[in-house]
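Training component of the fellowship. As part of building independent skills, the fellow (R.M.) carried out the full modelling exercise for a liganded target. The chosen ligand was protoporphyrin IX containing FE. The inputs are recorded below so that the supervisory panel can assess the work.
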Amino acid sequence: MATQATLPPGPKGLPFIGNLLPFRNDPLHFMTAVQQRYGDLVSVRLLHHNVICGFRPEHVRYCLMEHPRSFHSIQSQGGNLRNLLGEGLLTSEGDFHRQQRRLVQPAFHRQRIEQYADTMVNYTLETLEGWQAGCEVDMTSQMQQLTLRIILKTMFNIESREQAVTLGRAFNTVIGQAPRRLPGVRGPLARLIGNTTKEQMARFEAGRAQLDAFVYTLIQQRHTDEQDQGDILSMLMATHEGDESLSDRQIRDQVMTLIAAGHETAQNSLCWTLYLLAQYPGVHEKLLAELRTVLHGRAPTTKDLAQLPYLEWVMNESWRVYPPAWRVGRQAIEPIELDGYHFPAGTIVLLHQWVTHKIPEIWGDPENFRPERWDPTQNQKVPQGAYFPFGGGPRICIGMPFAQMEVRLVLATLLQHYNPRLAPNQQIVPLPRVTLRPRYGMRMILQPVS
Ligand code: HEM
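Fellow's submitted model of the complex:
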């Protein structure tokens, strides 16, 4: 393919800083506008860097599926996530990453995951026991507690509610206070751009120390017990790479990654889905009818999921409209050819679920929350790479089957008891941080299901 020496089109922005302000302050709106104005492959200048944004399915396929070894994840290149997660699965590269992935994979095999179903349903029922008809709850914290408890129990055999509360607070501090970083920008300039005060940094460090203390205590307890608890922690501790077992630091990084990646995304999925159902009563009614017909008021099991196709379409559609992972970033480690452009090693390419999931030429009516578009009999063709809530290729979300089962079981349980409506006088706005969160939380009134 012929290569062009120039960069793809894109907004010039201001002298020196380029597009820094809109990119940092409102990336969802900025990226949508950039795609509409400049097309599907865009160059965005941030200070002296040019970041390439690829919005087409073929760009997603190129980076994630066809040439994954030409790239590193930007998550592994430093920054807060790397700072928190060390060399866990999400933030490591190359042979080490592949080795770790093989190690963790058995915990996510389908038969293994099916054993987690009871915990998912029972913890949801326990959450509902604490609710009262007509009351208002902060759904974000309710769903955080629930998803944290599920991950702690299924992966690490921890049952304490109190620990889930403490950990939830520490995660909120770390994620809430984390300085916002720009891809490829390091050092003092990164701190300046991140707008981080000393106090924020101190809170971030304190939150991280609290999380570290929790995980290291857990590891120490297991060293003392020496009992195989049959969970992923026992598996990690029994692992030997050659003659060496994993260090506490390596175990800590994997544990922290699984707790962080395993609850935050699922929590946000559940909140956004409840929000969408409250906005679309017709969809909610249809879903409820399916739940009634199949479950007759009883708690769901994994076997029921195959009989609940509408529930699956609701989730697929929710992940299209509000993808919890709203952007994936890669840095080329060798020269690449993309759409006829030649980019040198070091180029950063951003792929945007938020934008690609809403391109009208692919989706027709992207602004509508319409689960029926996932009905296979409707023949909507979704090209590979057009829909990637869980990423793709060798780094595809390892927790995908876990999450797909968890959110459906939680919803099927919850919606048979309550019909959460949005409480008045609040703004629901997505906040794109590590994941897509509701910026001001989500207060909901618990209307009982008649
Ligand atoms: C709806 C829920 C979830 C969404 C939308 C989601 C999304 C993603 C995405 C997009 C990636 C790829 C990132 C990249 O390519 O740079 C990823 C990776 C990952 N996810 Fe998830 N995730 C979810 C749930 C989970 C759960 C429940 C777990 C664990 C229990 C988990 C653990 C991981 C890990 C460890 C990775 C790194 C995989 C690797 O690099 O090899 N995720 N996730």
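The panel noted the following from the submitted structure. The chain has a mean pLDDT of 91. The pocket of protoporphyrin IX containing FE is lined by residues 73, 75, 89-90, 101, 151, 257-258, 261-262, 265-266, 269, 324-325, 328, 389-391, 395, 397-399, 402-403 (CB under 6 Å).
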